[in-house]
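Protein of uncharacterized function (DUF861)
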Amino acid sequence: MSHNASRLVRIGTGPLADPEIGKPRRPIEGNTEFRSVNAFEGNEGRVLSGVWESSAGKFRSDTTGYIEFGYILEGQARIVDPDGTVHELRPGDPFIMPEGYKGHWEVDEFVKKIYFITHLA
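Tokens:
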């Protein structure tokens, strides 16, 4: 999926149509399921943006090789830094996970975010 650079790309934030279903690669606790839809791909696949949802659970994050901007749309979650600092995220909260970030997510029920990922290589 690539897009014409001269056209605006809108990201649908309602119910996800035909989402990709996945599981955490680094689960900690729970039977978490992810649902995501890419809305944009550019720069030969090195830039991605779309909507991601997660059911309840705890799982590790590892952004080695990329930087991610996120914006919480629905639900809530906590992202816990490796040093134990807890970041409560609710609708309207933006965040950036820098390259190499290795914290973990804690989702009590459900969370939905817009993401923008830039791969560095």
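Strands lie at 20-22, 27-29, 34-42, 47-60, 66-75, 77-80, 86-89, 94-97, 104-119.
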